[in-house]
Amino acid sequence: MPANVTHKSQGIGAAMNRVDGRLKVTGKANYAGDSQFASPPLIGWVVGADVASGTLTHLDTSGAESQEGVHAVITHLNSVEQAPFGSPEDMGRFGQSRAMLNDTTIRYAGFPIAMVVADTLEQARYAAQLIEFTITPAPISLLSEHQEAQVVPEDDDGGYDPDAGIGNIDAALADHQRFDMTYTTPNQVSAAMEPHTCIASYDGEQLEVQASVQILASAVDCLASTFKLPADKIRIKSPYVGGGFGSKLGLHNDAILACIGALQLQRPVKVAMTRRQVFHNAPHRGKSIQHMALSVTDEGQLAGVRHHSAMPMAKDYAFAEGTGVAARINYQAAAIDSQHRVKVVDSPMIDSVRAPGDAIGSLAFESAVDELARTLDIDPVTFRRNNIAPVHPITGADFSTNNLDRCLQEGAAQFGWDERTYRTRGTRKNGFGVALGMRMNMIVPSEASLTLHPNGELVVHTDMTDIGTGTYTILTQIVAEHLKVDANRITIDLGDSNSPTSSGSGGSFGASSAGTAVLNACEALSEKLCELAGLARGNSLVQLAGDNVIFGEGQTQQQHAVPHLLNSDSPLTVTGSVAPDEGNDEYVQYSSAAHFAEVEVDTITGEVRILRQHGAFSAGRILNRKTAGSQLKGGMIWGASYALLEDLQQDPRDGSFVNCDFAEYHIAVNRDIGDITLQLIEEPDYKACKLGSKGIGELGITGSGAAIANAVFDAVGVRVRDFPITPDKIVKQLSETR
Amino acid sequence: MSSITINQQEYALPSDPRTTLLDFLHQNLQLFGARKGCDHGQCGACTVLVDGERMNACLLLTFQLAGKAVVTIEGVADNDDLHPLQQAFIDNDAFQCGFCTSGQICAGIAAQRELQEQRPSAVWFDAYYTRLEDVKERLSGNLCRCGAYPHIIEAVTSTDSTPEA
């Protein structure tokens, strides 16, 4: 292919189809459970504890062991040696030992107490039913009231201080019209469609693992910590991940148990959590109780903003969610008081679920703010525009870029906010809602290599993952644009722990972090090629055309054959990396969103139907308009699902979750969702990173649910403060006001 | 009859009567395209076509399918030529992680046929229902946690030749 024909449709920002699309629509993308090992794996079936806390006092596996096809029943009595759970202390939580089957202590409901390993799934599943066990239960502790949460977490996820504020909050609340509100959000789960699954193989020296994990490097650390193995004897592959949403940031029971099986039997062993097991054995988001007090001047200016969050923290696992951070950033106020407290509970692991802090914080806080605007009879869009902050409301730092006001203004225009019309259809009334969202942006250290082969093909290696975010595609576009090369000459190799260490996927940091590393690798290759051609360094125009490199343009253009430049048949590899300080840290970096919704509420049944959602987003430079739009819409749907449906209920007697399947834990289905539209207000943010992009993976959800909650109020005057807004709660309030 | 046809190839039924069609595809045939998202018939990720009708492979015992013809996602394309709905999924970006996609496409193919044959859906009993809601209703047995729903609907409607009722 000649130079300069890089399709515009393949460069940064283009709405290019996913490069892995064909594999995914033909069922050929390899997820963790699709064994690539030479011999078929044995199947491990997990038996879990039926109480949340206690001691395993009786265990009889003889019935299971004698079954056809059973190779082993692994329990704490015969498992391989493991380091204590949570060690070493100085390692991040995803790199610590996640030991199990190593003692008689029951850490939470569903905690594994035995694993049957058999030739087939059917054999293992049946034999597991024959295991007899007794657990002597211990008393459990859960969070039920706000005041029970007294522990100050060391920090909140995302590096936030548990407490932050400015001004005299008591005075600000006392001097103006004051609103006190308590909102609650329930336990929630990621519910990625792919249950956590792992196949491990051990040949006596090397541990090879197919896992479903968002971050590979720390997953290697985790296995090294757990099994006291050198990290260089462990290789994890995770080329395709069937959804993560935080629940696959680290490795979980499937991976530890598959490795235990493989280490013990020296055969490949596959462990797939059942869907029911995922609810207990993968992390969940704890419930929140959010006490808020807000005050507002007669002119509609926020004066005092108090947000006190109470949440559970899982025993032995120091994760706290920054549920109140929306109160610190969304609006300016004379006084702000944000506080997070936790209670240590006997719950399964509590960790990140998509948009930690903001997903449920924005749900409550943006509903509360809406109550003010509605009570004062100020247009909710106007109220928000009058109160958003020109600088960080607490620190006073400038934003790197901030288009929140444009999101609100232009979003309202496109949604038709000022032209909204009310109607009644039979027993249904419509209503409109708005909410905003601010999501912190960050860069995480990342490295990638770029290899130029003598035939002119380019291969990127990085242990980055594509969890549906479109990483394969946007990295292809970055290389295609920089080296003016056709996408089909580029291979992106992801999800292999032997590759250079990346940020991994999570916290909306993946695209900017891994992308900037790849961009830097491209620049390194350009420079190296200039050097090999004997040209001045920094000649920015270096293009690849087939197996030729073209330098410069016009009169000074030069062309060299790649094999000639490389002066050998061996490929040329360069690396690129990025570190957080490359961004400009004197500025605060946020992506911004304005959400609009129209719903219809049935005044008899209390059913809410979402007619439409519209989002206006600003997140720096957009790397692929198609995949970015998909991710944002997906987040908006999460918000809808949080507002109306999701509620993981915990049995107060034994701490177990009650509704552990999709018939009982409702996530939005196709017909729950109305028309979804969005607009992108694009302004590259080069203070955020060299690519100019900012995170979008969690932006779509931030504020989305509150817009729907606010629309429900607009439709029928019902304000439900304990999410989700289910028909029973609406009917109850309607009947009280009738 | 003790065989089953899968993607036009005949296979002996498994010896273990407990083996579901989904586990048969995975364990016995190494056909991983139909996905196990719940194993309870609640998510639709394992949707396949059995004699042209969409079914959850996790809810079928293979031994009951003697003489049946099954098409999985691996059998939807005509060799290298993608089915129009597969191409529409790519063009409309109707997936993100891809795990539910096999089931969505099989369900979409079957739903298009149901629309052609004017088979009723639950929304037909709602006085205000629209064609769009009908399509959404028919695809609500297939969960997508990435939230690709709007694009799935665009893919299915853009390749649906059923005239408006």
Describe this protein with a few key phrases.
heterodimer; A: 738 residues; alpha+beta; Aldehyde Oxidoreductase, domain 4; 5-stranded mixed beta sheet; 17 helices; 25% helix; 25% strand; B: Ubiquitin-like (UB roll); DNA polymerase, domain 1; 5 strands; 12% strand
Short synopsis of the structure:
The complex is a heterodimer of chains A (738) and B (165). Chain A is of the alpha+beta class. Chain A has 17 helices and 29 strands.
How do the strands and helices of this protein lay out in sequence?
The complex is a heterodimer of chains A (738) and B (165).
Chain A: H1 21-25, E1 42-48, E2 54-60, H2 62-65, E3 70-74, E4 105-106, E5 112-118, H3 121-128, E6 132-137, E7 163-166, H4 169-174, E8 177-185, E9 188-189, E10 197-202, E11 207-211, H5 216-227, E12 234-237, H6 253-265, E13 269-272, H7 275-281, E14 284-285, E15 288-296, E16 302-314, H8 325-329, E17 335-345, H9 358-375, H10 380-387, H11 404-415, E18 424-425, E19 428-440, E20 446-452, E21 458-461, H12 471-483, E22 490-493, H13 510-532, E23 542-545, E24 548-551, E25 558-561, H14 562-566, E26 572-578, E27 590-602, E28 608-618, H15 625-644, E29 675-680, H16 704-716, H17 727-737
Chain B: E1 3-6, E2 9-12, H1 21-28, E3 47-50, E4 53-56, E5 69-71, H2 84-91, H3 101-116, H4 131-138, H5 149-158
Parallel strand pairs in B: 1-5
Antiparallel strand pairs in B: 1-2, 3-4, 3-5
Helix pairs in contact in B: 2-5
Protein name (chain A): Xanthine dehydrogenase family protein molybdopterin-binding subunit
Domain Aldehyde oxidase/xanthine dehydrogenase a/b hammerhead (chain A): 26-139
InterPro entries (chain A): Ald_Oxase/Xan_DH_a/b, Ald_Oxase/Xan_DH_a/b_sf, Ald_Oxase/xanthine_DH-like, AldOxase/xan_DH_MoCoBD1, AldOxase/xan_DH_MoCoBD2, AldOxase/xan_DH_Mopterin-bd_sf
